[in-house]
Amino acid sequence: MTTVALDTGVGPLLRSWREQRRISQLELALRADSSARHISFIETGRSRPSEEMVLRLAEHLEVPVRERNALLVVAGYAPRYAQTALDDPALDALREGMERLLQAYDPYPALVVDGTYNVVAANRGMATLMEGVAEHLLVPPLNAMRLTLHPEGLAPRIRNLREWRADLLDQMERQIALARSAELRELYEEVAGYPVPEGTGPGPVASLPFALPLLIEHEGRVLSFVCSIATFNTPMDVTVAELAIETLLPADRSTADHLRSLVP
């Protein structure tokens, strides 16, 4: 998913990240316990940063873990962060922990996605919402954005689709700006190009005082959810850094009661 060109010096790349974060050389220097002069020398190529300095600047610039590896390689150092396959035995405890969390959240929907919104795990509550989705969208790897916005996915059943679609696309744009992923950009262009299903109006006014709800039809009812996204604190592995646990919390009692009624 990395898009860094390896023939570009580390200095210009760090400058690009700094400018994207709208931080001055002086502010970055103060954060990184350096000097504006040294930061300037690094960015112009007059000074080669140490491995520690690359990592320190990347941390203060909130560079994603995957891109920190790329910066290290460009600077002439070995990658610091592993990229472990999710099915590797080394991640058994993490994977089992996520499964327990998803199961405990039943009957409310929950899923785990990677950095390009591919679904790596989901619970029965999520499967309930997937009823009626076209078979070709359920062929692995399932993608949460395709499932939600495709005209043969959940989109026709989302009562406030225009609001929810705009929010999801904004979320993707922010993620693209953070991760600079060509793969994520391609996904964005794909799902942003999906036609809005006919008959989909502006939807009812989403009047929750604390968050935009997802209003979706299921078995003749309109269910209301609030989405929560959790990531792992201080990850030291690229795979783990890009995982996100998304949970749909019932926004009203009738939604919670309906989901509980589906439990055998």
What do these coordinates show?
This protein is α+β, with helices and mostly antiparallel strands. Helices cover 44% and strands 11% of the residues. It has helices at 10-21, 25-31, 36-44, 51-60, 65-74, 92-105, 124-129, 144-149, 161-179, 182-192, 238-241, 253-261, and strands spanning 110-113, 119-122, 214-218, 221-230, 244-250. It is elongated. Residues 1-7 have low confidence and may be disordered.
Short précis:
This protein is 44% helix and 11% strand. It has helices at 10-21, 25-31, 36-44, 51-60, 65-74, 92-105, 124-129, 144-149, 161-179, 182-192, 238-241, 253-261; strands at residues 110-113, 119-122, 214-218, 221-230, 244-250. A 5-stranded antiparallel β-sheet has the order 2-1-5-4-3.
Characterize the overall form.
elongated
Ends apart, CA distance between termini = 41 Å
How big a fraction of the residues is strand?
Answer: 5-15%
Going across the biggest sheet, name each strand in turn. 2-1-5-4-3
Low-confidence stretches: 1-7
Mean pLDDT: 91
The biggest sheet amounts to: 5 strands, antiparallel
Provide key terms for this protein.
264 residues; 12 helices; 5-stranded antiparallel β-sheet; alpha+beta; 11% strand; 44% helix
